[in-house]
Amino acid sequence: MASRPSLRPSLRQSARALGHMVERRRHPQRFIQTDKTPWEEIHRDGIMAVRHYSLPPMASIPVGEEQVPVRRDKHRVPLILVPALGIRCWTFDLMPNRSMVRYLMARGHDVYLIDWGQPSQANRELNLDTYVNRWLPDAVDAVRRASGSERVNLLGYCMGGLLCLLYLGGHPQAPVNSLATIASPVNFHKSGPFGKVFSLAAIPAMKIHDWFQFRLEPLDSKLFHIPADLLSWGFKLTNPPGLVQSYMDLVRNIGDRDYVTEYMTMGQWFNDMVDYPGAVVREVIEKMILGNSLASGRVTIGERRVDFGHVTQDLLAFGGASDRIVSVRAAREILKVVGSREKRFEVAPGGHAGVFAGSKAPAQCWRVIADWLADRAD
């Protein structure tokens, strides 16, 4: 008589999956692996701070399924990472095997990171002038003092890249060798479906402005302040099918601890966002979305006239092939407005988060950036 197949493996798998589900609910911090690389604070101004990272002694670091050798000597010119607003700065340092900070250090770069802090309603008057003309120059000076280097390199993600661009365009003598941007929209009216809506809305908005001299600036900043929870839902709703699919994938892989850890860590990105200051939102709407001023290469930030033609640093820019928030067309426009002689644009796999920190990012975006910066860091 044929023996009945054993049910033990499937029972064990079911028990493991149930255990992970219970643990995930009761102790989510065990699965969320963010901000694990050692760092020290070298500068602070209010909620803004600058971090300097260090890599523990090791011969190599894990990146995905590979081991990346750790270079023993550092490049001379330090690198400053500039996050987007609205997200935590540790998006540059997710899981130990998905950390851009660790990867760049392993490749020999001396890495610093700006932490924009956690704005609240009390910080709703923070505007672009503060970020571009005060905090960024101060951060650059702090890194120069700490590193002993006269110059720095900049790498910005999304709005972080635009802040760098505005800083360089308004400070032509900035001690910066090069700029790399990832998913930074220069032409808001070319950013996919959102761009079409922006461009259509801009026509009547500009007419109203011309006829009645109506501006958003006099309106209270609290009307534009975006709370973290609302910002989080806004990002998630840019791709509802993807949100449903990712949850279905989690259910199918609930017994795989590594998968659950990666899912919850990446999910923390969108579940733990920070407020977007109202004054910045008001300026972005008026100057970048309706006026589309960045596409012309000229805009006023505070008392400074910004001209992207004054940006002469070497430039490397990336767009995400499937980015629903910042289209490749919107990001590529940076090549038209800067005055750089050496400028390059790359399309890399992934959406708005994936191009920056997805599973394919290390072999694509990160590798290209590390190679490119190496020639500009010695």
UniProtKB/TrEMBL annotation:
Record's signal peptide: none
Protein's UniProt name: Alpha/beta fold hydrolase
GO terms of molecular function: hydrolase activity
Superkingdom of this protein's organism: Bacteria
PANTHER family attached to this UniProt entry: POLY(3-HYDROXYALKANOATE) POLYMERASE SUBUNIT PHAC
The UniProt record lists the keyword Metal-binding: no
InterPro entries: AB_hydrolase_1, AB_hydrolase_fold, PHA/PHB_synthase
Native source species: Alloalcanivorax marinus
Domain AB hydrolase-1 intervals: 79-356
Keyword Iron: no
Keywords associated with the record: Hydrolase
